[in-house]
Amino acid sequence: MSALTKNNFILKISEITKTVPIDEVGVEERVARLNSRSIKKESKVQALKLALSMIDLTTLEGMDTPGKVIQLCQKAKEPHAALPDLPTVAAVCVYPNMVPVAKKALRGTNINVASVATAFPSGMSTLDAKLEETQQVVEDGADEVDMVISRGEFLKGNYSYVYDEIVAVKEACGDAHLKVILETGELQTYENVRKASDLAMHAGADFIKTSTGKVKPAATQPVTLVMLEAIRDYFYDTGRMVGMKPAGGIRKAKQAIQYLVLVKETLGTDWLTPEYFRFGASSLTNDLLMQIVKQQTGVYQGVEYFSND
Amino acid sequence: MSDRIEVLKTYKTYAGGNFPRTESGRYYKVYDGNDNILANACQCSRKDLRDAVVAARNAQKGWNGRSAYNRGQILYRIAEMLETRKAQFIEELETIGYKTKKAKAEVEASIDRLIYYAGWSDKYQQVFGTINPVSSSHFNFSMPEPMGVVNVWAPEERPLLGLVSVMAPVIVGGNTCVILASEKYPLSAISFAEVLNSSDVPGGVVNILTGFRDELLEHMTTHKDVNAFFYTDPNIVQEQRKQIDENATLNLKRVRRKPVEDWESEEAQSPYYITDFQETKTTWHPVGL
Question: Is A146 a catalytic residue?
């Protein structure tokens, strides 16, 4: 209940999760229309740099090693040695056991360490284990926690379970920011995405995030638009700004700019900062860098000239 | 019966195994031998080039990963497909002013050229690879390996034979390519793309654009994800040669210029066209004493 009283109003679960009808064709058409916008050179350069500063540079592989994480942190601090004036990325996102490594590698910078938690990516574990994991990563120094919701319980209709779980994890986070992964690829419909977004925000999420990156489809623009509209409506209701993080499958600079257009048109410029919008990605970084260098030199770039991470 | 309205073919480009129109929406007129308009060809932009290079890069690893024997089979298959469509190509060449006999000779020479390079596919590595004598206990050998993505200016004057002669040696060695077709006679090149598309050539291995050489030269030669530039123009102006050479230094692109007088002659085909787009890799393999 704490999250609810904090916002000074009380809603029943059934009110939070009431079905908001989504016009599927309308959402997809709006995305298509916004994608056809032409962004001219100067704005493009600015958008590319902004997108770079919004990246949660991510490595979530079973084969991750401290060496790999240190390398990634180096990339986070200095995306491209030839362009020292570039912004750094917003955060580095790793598995729980890599948090101390990332924390140490990023000491003295303002780059956050984000950790996935709560039995990522499936979330199939007991609540106690999830809370313990969350406390551990926060203790190890994670500034941000990316949790997954229990999709099985959600699809069963057990919304109060999902709600209580998010509230409990939020409490366990303390000062760390909580991002709630809905795993939209498993939620079947846009109505469910909307419902899960509302649930997560009311339960206290600082960010809502589309996907783990382990399930296809991962982030799509229509899903993101649905979530952005949920954030907008929640803001109108409560006055609290919740962040958005599409993750998985965003590899090209062009896609990134299209996402920024969606945010600008749905939520406005207030959300166009790393504080309220993030990309969960890794290979996107190099494509952004390649486009930035292309804009500066006029020469199309090859991936061989950028550090491989 | 009323007169039938003829269905004219839209000549598009060929990139990544698809036939997209130019993203620029620009076209230029192509004339026949008597200054009558034949068709509109795509006037490709730098963005079409960029997309074609991406397609070529994505296809390169898989193409090189095929066995040499299989690449030979596919080249042979292109020749077979071209053989069955001989009449169409002869007719197409006639519309731009070729006499029937000369058109037939050009198409047949093109088919033969494909067969020629198909044959070299699993042999050039054996001929040009070496075992080197060294004074340590190593087995030391050198092998030619493909450079990667090659940008090609097809010859201006021989729209089919010229194109085939510059394409075949590049791809038989495991490279992929982006070819800018003859500016004046681009139509055969796009019809040839239809042949490629039905010959088991994986999408992206050959990409064919049409448009203006002057416009595309800068990006064809500067692009840093391209490993070599191949052109044949005998009459290229000095300034453009300088531009090509200077731009190539950006990422140490290999530049090959092969002016050929007679594309039907022996000088227009040789295994050295293959090795022009190969890098030598030398391996030191320890052996017991």
Answer: yes
Residue B223 touches chain A, beta carbons under 8 Å: yes
DSSP-derived secondary structure for chain A: -HHHHHTT----HHHHT------HHHHHHHHHHHHT----HHHHHHHHHHHHHTEEEE---TT--HHHHHHHHHHHH-S-TT-TTSPPPSEEEE-GGGHHHHHHHTTTSS-EEEEEESSTTT--S-HHHHHHHHHHHHHTT-SEEEEE--HHHHHHT-HHHHHHHHHHHHHHHTTSEEEEE--GGGS-SHHHHHHHHHHHHHTT-SEEE---SSSSS---HHHHHHHHHHHHHHHHHH----EEE-BSS---HHHHHHHHHHHHHHT-GGG-STTTB-EEESHHHHHHHHHHHHHHHSS---GGGS---
DSSP B22: P
What are the tens digits of pLDDT across the range A158-181? 999 999 999 999 999 999 999 999
Find the residue in B nearest to A302 (Cα).
B225
Among the partner residues A298, A300, A304, nearest to B50 by beta-carbon distance: A300
- List of chain B residues with pLDDT < 50: none
What pLDDT is stored for residue B277 in this prediction? 98
Please, what are the domains in chain A? 2-53+78-85+117-275+285-305 (3.20.20.70)
| Contact (CB<8Å) B225/A299 | no
Give the C-alpha separation, A283 to A106, whole Å: 20
The DSSP bridge pattern shows strands B149-153 and B228-231 to be parallel
- Chain A hits for B250, CB-CB cut-off 8 Å, are 299
| Contact residues on chain A for B46, CB-CB shorter than 8 A | 300
Are the beta carbons of A301 and B226 separated by less than 8 Å?
Answer: no
Tokens linked to B145? 């390996």
Amino acid letter for position A106: L
Is A300 in Cβ contact with B223 (below 8 Å)?
yes
Q: Please, how many CA atoms are within 13 Å of residue A4, restricted to the half-sphere of its CB? A: 12
Q: Which of residues 112-141 of B touch A (CB under 8 A)?
A: none
Predicted confidence band of residue A124 (pLDDT cuts 50, 70, 90): very high
User: Is 70 exceeded by the pLDDT of residue A1?
Assistant: no
CATH of B27-281, picked from 1.10.760.10, 3.40.605.10, 3.30.565.10, 3.20.20.140, is 3.40.605.10
User: Taking the domains of chain B in order of start, what are their residue ranges?
Assistant: 27-281
Strands A279-281 and B27-31 turn out to be unpaired
| Residue A209 is among the residues annotated as catalytic for this protein | yes
Q: Does the distance separating the beta carbons of A302 and B223 come in below 8 Å?
A: yes
* Interface ipTM: 0.85
